[in-house]
Design a protein that fits this description.
mainly alpha, 2 domains, 38% helix, elongated
């Protein structure tokens, strides 16, 4: 007598016994924004929105950005120790 293995997880249970998750699969019952495709969509929409805002307001450089753009043109020892422009160099 050969044993067969079934891919159905409910095959070994009696017909009346509910599954561990109930009648619903946890992945299928998750809301759209909690699924991997929903998360990717939200991140993509955020990136597009951020890019649109950056393009629309690109002409309005504020004072901090102007000073920082001036400071990163050369490597100096006299940077403010609390806030050097390391991220602009990268």
């Amino acid at each position: 007598m050969s044993a067969t293995v079934s891919a159905d997880p409910s095959a070994g249970r009696p017909a009346n016994t509910p599954s561990k998750f109930g009648p619903y699969d946890p992945v299928e019952s998750a809301p759209w924004w909690a699924r991997p495709s929903g998360i990717a969509l939200i991140v993509a929409l955020w990136a597009v929105l951020h890019a649109l805002i950056a393009v629309v307001f690109e002409s309005a450089i504020n004072v901090d950005d102007a000073i920082e753009s001036y400071l990163v043109q050369s490597f100096e020892i006299s940077y403010v120790a609390r806030n050097p422009p390391v991220f602009d160099w990268l």
